[in-house]
TrEMBL record:
One of its GO terms (biological process) is vacuolar proton-transporting V-type ATPase complex assembly. Keywords: Membrane, Transmembrane, Transmembrane helix. It comes from Cadophora malorum. Residues 80-91, 117-126, 141-150 have a biased composition (Basic and acidic residues). Residues 80-100, 117-150 are annotated as: Disordered. It holds the Pfam family Pkr1. This is Pkr1-domain-containing protein. GO terms for cellular component: endoplasmic reticulum membrane. The chain crosses the membrane at residues 20-41, 48-66. Coiled coil: none annotated.
């Protein structure tokens, strides 16, 4: 039993659904269903039927998701294995490189659009005063001084 608890704690830090975590999840949901059944028998309340259906739906969805993850992982492993086999069978002693996808590739327009200037450009870095006179802080100070005058 202590080995199961140790594996369960270690499975928390392992990515993906581990067998120990799945066993713990299924046992927990089975116990929850048993408790809900006992409460239904004791109270004859419809609430426990609804809770049992919700619990069963969650239990089923968790197991479905794990099976989909396993199927996706198996497909990925098969694809990787096939790629590795193809790579090993295609190895030759030549140093030639394979060129892939040399079709008609267009990286942009061949026409050049000429932009016209729409106004005059102003030199913001004028040499008439110090740099601090053209800063935003000085402009805010001028605005606040104008507000005080009102």
């Amino acid at each position: 039993m202590s080995a199961f608890i140790t594996d369960l704690v270690q499975s928390i830090f392992t990515p993906g659904p581990t067998p120990t975590l799945l066993v713990a999840t299924n046992v927990t949901f089975a116990c929850l269903q048993a408790v809900l059944l006992l409460l239904l028998i004791a109270t004859f309340s419809i609430h426990f039927v609804i809770l049992s259906l919700l619990s069963a739906g969650l239990w089923w969805s968790i197991n479905w998701f794990v099976s989909e993850l396993r199927a996706a992982q198996a497909a990925e492993d098969e694809k990787k294995r096939a790629f590795d086999e193809a790579k090993h069978t295609d190895d030759t002693d030549t140093d030639a490189e394979t060129v892939i996808g040399t079709g008609n590739i267009h990286f942009g327009s061949k026409e050049v659009e000429i932009l016209e200037e729409n106004g005059e450009l102003k030199d913001r870095g004028s040499t008439k005063g110090s740099k601090s006179e053209t800063s935003t802080e000085d402009e805010w100070e001028r605005v606040s001084e104008n507000e005080k005058d009102k």
